[in-house]
Amino acid sequence: GEDVEQSLFLSVREGDSSVINCTYTDSSSTYLYWYKQEPGAGLQLLTYIFSNMDMKQDQRLTVLLNKKDKHLSLRIADTQTGDSAIYFCAVSTSGTYKYIFGTGTRLKVLA
Amino acid sequence: DTAVSQTPKYLVTQMGNDKSIKCEQNLGHDTMYWYKQDSKKFLKIMFSYNNKELIINETVPNRFSPKSPDKAHLNLHINSLELGDSAVYFCASSLQVSGANVLTFGAGSRLTVL
How many angstroms separate the CA atoms of B56 and B87, rounded? Predict the structure, then answer.
C-alpha cells in the first residue's frame, strides 16, 4: 500500500532554520501538504504544493518537491519557540478521495 | 465561531461500554472524516462521508459505526469498548481548492477506556 514516511524527531536552536523531510511511495500523488499540530489541538494546514511545482515559498516557509525521488521537505526560516509542534506531511490524488498522512515529525525548538 | 466542533473533548469509560462522539461543521463542506490518532501520534483514516454517502471505510472493527444525518454532521458510535480503543479521535471536513483537498480538523476527542 501507499506509504508516507517522516523522521520522528528534530531539534533546533531558536533562530536557526529547520528542515523537515518526507518521502512517499505513490507516484500518482497530485497534491502534497504540510500540517502543524500543536499540543492538545487538531491539525492545521500550513501550505500545499501541486506536483508539477518544484518549490513554493510562503513567508518563513519553503516547500521543496523532488518528484523523481518522491521527496518533500519543509524549511522553516528563523525558527521560533512557537514553531515547536508536530508536523505532518500528507498526499492526495486528484479524482480520488485518497488522502494519506505521514508519521509526523516532532519539532523541538530550544531557546 | 468554531468551524469543526467535536463533543465531548474528553471521555473516560469502562471496557464493554458503548459511547458516541459527535461532530458538526459550519463551513458548508461536502466531505467529512474520522481519524484515529494513537499514543505515538500516528494518524489513521477510519471513515469518510461525502454528502452523507460513505466513501471511505478503512479496516476498522465493525464495533465502530459512523452516522451522517446530514452533510454538516458526522457522528461516531463505538460498541463494546476495548482498551485498544483508547486514542484521540479527530473529525475533519474538507473543501476542494483548485483540485487540492484542504482539511479542517476539530480539536479532537480523547477517549480513555479503563
Answer: 20
Report CA dihedral (A74, A77, A79, A84) to the nearest 10 degrees.
-20
- Contact between A43 and B43 using a beta-carbon 8 Å cutoff: yes
Question: A14 vs chain B: nearest CA distance in angstroms?
Answer: 24
Q: Shortest Cα distance from B20 to chain A (angstroms)?
A: 19
Residue A82, classed as helix, strand or coil, is helix
Q: Which of B6, B41, B48 would you mutate first to test chain A, the one with the most A CBs within 10 A? A: B41
Find the Cα–Cα–Cα–Cα dihedral A79, B89, A103, A26, rounded to 10°. Answer: -120
Q: Is A62 in CB contact (< 8 Å) with chain B?
A: no
E-assigned strand segments in chain A: 4-6, 9-13, 18-24, 31-37, 43-50, 55-58, 61-66, 71-76, 85-92, 99-101, 105-110
Phi, then psi, of A83 in degrees rounded to 5: -85, -10
| pLDDT digit string (tens) for chain B, length 114 residues | 679 999 999 999 999 999 999 999 999 999 999 999 999 899 999 999 988 889 888 878 999 999 999 999 999 999 999 999 999 999 999 987 778 889 999 999 999 999
Distance CA B74, CA B68 (A): 4
Sheet holding A71-76, edge to edge: A4-6, A18-24, A71-76, A61-66, A55-58
